[in-house]
Amino acid sequence: MAVFSRSRRRLLLGGAAVAGLLRPAPSQAGALSVNPVLVTFRPGQTMATFEVANRGGTPTATQIRLFAWSQNGDEDVLTPTTDLLASPPLFDIKADEEQIVRLVQRRPSERLERTYRLILDEIPQAGGAREIVVALRISLPVIVAGTSPASPDLTWRAERGQGNQLILAARNAGRRHIRVNLLEALLPQQRGAVAAKAISGNPFVLAGAERRWSLALPAGASPGGTLRLRMQSDTGSPSEFTVPLSS
Fold first, then answer.
1. In this structure, are strands 9-11 and 3-6 parallel, antiparallel, or unpaired?
2. How far apart are CA 68 and CA 45, in angstroms?
3. Does the pTM exceed 0.85?
4. Paired sense of beta strands 75-80 and 60-72, if any
5. In whole angstroms, what is the distance from residue 78 CA to residue 122 CA?
6. Can you tell me the distance from the alpha carbon of 61 to that of 245, in angstroms, rounded to the nearest whole number?
7. By the number of CB atoms within 10 A of the CB, which of 45, 168, 182, 208 ranks highest?
8. Fold agreement (3-144, 154-246)
9. Which architecture characterizes domain 154-246 according to CATH?
10. Contact 48, 40 (CB under 8 A)
11. In the chain, where the domains are located
12. pLDDT, tens digit, for every residue of 21-41?
């Protein structure tokens, strides 16, 4: 999933509708768009491509940087890397034109999955004295699949947060990332979903990492007990978990 940001404004993809979450499409913000929104290297694959398009009315310059990607709690940790090479790393795109970017893997595939982030920065043209130029940044996930078969393995815990908030934490003990698209929590004494959350921003839980989400509980919901948690993800069919709910 690509994440776009501007000064004083962030555009987070995927949270508007479940249909949009489940059908990846070219990601766009402002004049630039990228396709696909997730770059994957299969085992043994050394090169992949993606397209950057400029749908604005003026030319723009862009720069690409590459980072190893890990997670520390809810924070993404990006470390500069030479494992991947972008070609070209710096380029101009005229109005209504496209640029194909090649990613070359300089480090052979290994047994375990590796995860990276590609940061594409728009380099704004100098504006006039009264013109404010806002640069665009796109963050694109890059996955290098491991040579050994792997799958995610989520374990969940739930606890009460402040007010009527329900905190759900997912720990991925597997060897592959997972993208969580939708969470739906159900309490035994209630009919229907008490809380549902379409995941926006960064919905990934990397291998060995833990992520937390906050959902709203209805007023008067009983403390303690258990809840049923339904999850839709990039692994296919929805999954369901029984999770103890601490008071």
1. antiparallel
2. 18
3. no
4. antiparallel
5. 19
6. 51
7. 168
8. yes
9. Sandwich (2.60)
10. yes
11. 3-144, 154-246
12. 233 444 444 588 899 999 999
- Burial bucket for residue 129 (CB in 10 Å: 0-12, 13-18, 19+): exposed
Other C-beta atoms closer than 10 Å to the C-beta of 221 total 18
Helix (H, G, I), strand (E, B) or coil at 103: strand
| Residue of 58 and 9 predicted with greater confidence | 58
Q: Round to whole Å and give the CA distance between 28 and 205.
A: 23
List pLDDT tens digits, range 110-152. Answer: 999 999 999 999 887 665 555 555 578 899 999 999 999 999 9
Residue pair 179/170 in contact by the 8 Å Cβ criterion = no
Q: For residue 110, what pLDDT is reported?
A: 92
Do the strands 210-216 and 165-172 form a parallel or antiparallel pair, or are they unpaired? antiparallel
Looking up tokens 């806002």 gives 134
User: Is cis: bond before 36, omega within 30 of 0?
Assistant: yes
CA distance 186 to 143: 33
- What is the H or E stretch that residue 21 is in? helix 18-22
Determine the pLDDT at residue 6: 42
Q: What is the mean pLDDT of residues 4-28?
A: 33
Of 194 and 169, which is predicted with more confidence?
169
Residues 91 and 99: their CA atoms lie apart, in Å, by 8
Go through the chain and tell me how many residues it has: 247
Closest CA to 18 of 197, 239, 241: 197
Mean pLDDT of the 39-51 span: 95
